[in-house]
Amino acid sequence: MLTKLIKELNTLKDSKKAEHAQRFFKTGKGEYGQGDIFIGIRVPVLRKTAGRYKTLLLKDVKKLLESKIHEHRFVALVILIKKFSKQQEKIYDFYMDNLKHINNWDLVDISAPKIAGKYLLDKDKSVLYDLARSENLWKKRIAIISTFEFIKNDRFRTALEISEILSNDSHDLIHKAVGWMLREIGKRNLDAEEEFLKKHYKKMPRTMLRYAIEKFGENKRKAYLKGTI
Q1: pLDDT, tens digit (0-9, with 9 covering 90-100), for 21-59
Q2: Measured between alpha carbons, how far is residue 1 from residues 4, 55, 117, 123, 134 in Å?
Q3: Which of 63, 104, 116, 177 has its CA 20 to 30 A from that of 142?
Q4: 166 vs 208: CA distance, rounded Å
Q5: Chain centroid to CA 70: how far?
Q6: Long-range contact set of residues 35-39: C-beta below 8 Å, sequence gap at least 24
Q7: Residues 115-145: pLDDT tens digits?
Q8: Residue 188: partners with Cβ closer than 8 Å, 6 or more residues away
Q9: What pLDDT is attached to residue 145?
């Protein structure tokens, strides 16, 4: 089945789309996605293809996840998400054992809430704090994006505490992720978001703050950006 899936993906590749993706996902030397290889398949097509192979054995999913080709890893993660409801602990353990292959922001964003977040919703969350304190960009993003599942269930504590850990991080992709999660908290409980912001906003990276206050009214946004709250 794995051979058939790879052959099918090869028939779908598009060199022009691949070239665009290589630029969009910053795959050049010194960039965050350095060395990542794209073959140019759109996300809806990848999702649809993954759906036809959701019974792929985990040993083959692992091979797909270890591929140098980005779209192969994307499909592997979608398959894992589809398997998760029936094998939660097994899929979570597999996911955590293979974090090194979840190495671009889209791979993190599609999978972290739906696997790590869902599994840890009612469990000890210390692993996320460990990831947040790591030196690895993608582990840090997994830590904060996993909390999206908690936020959707009106549980904000972990997201806020991890946001605090990452509030002085140097990477733009962490700034955006933390700001995004703070904004999501604000959609559900504005007081909770603003309590955090009032404590941290003057020292937060500008991008993080802009993402966090994106849905605020114009006057309030300006006050935060000017530091006059």
Answers
A1: 999 999 999 999 999 999 999 999 999 999 999 999 999
A2: 5, 9, 29, 35, 36
A3: 63
A4: 10
A5: 15
A6: 35/68, 36/68, 36/70, 36/103, 36/104, 37/68, 37/69, 37/70, 38/69, 38/70, 38/71, 39/9, 39/10, 39/12, 39/13, 39/14, 39/69, 39/70, 39/71
A7: 999 999 999 999 999 999 999 999 999 999 9
A8: 151, 154, 156
A9: 98
Express each pLDDT in 147-173 by its tens digit: 999 999 999 999 999 999 999 999 999
Q: How many residues does the chain have?
A: 229
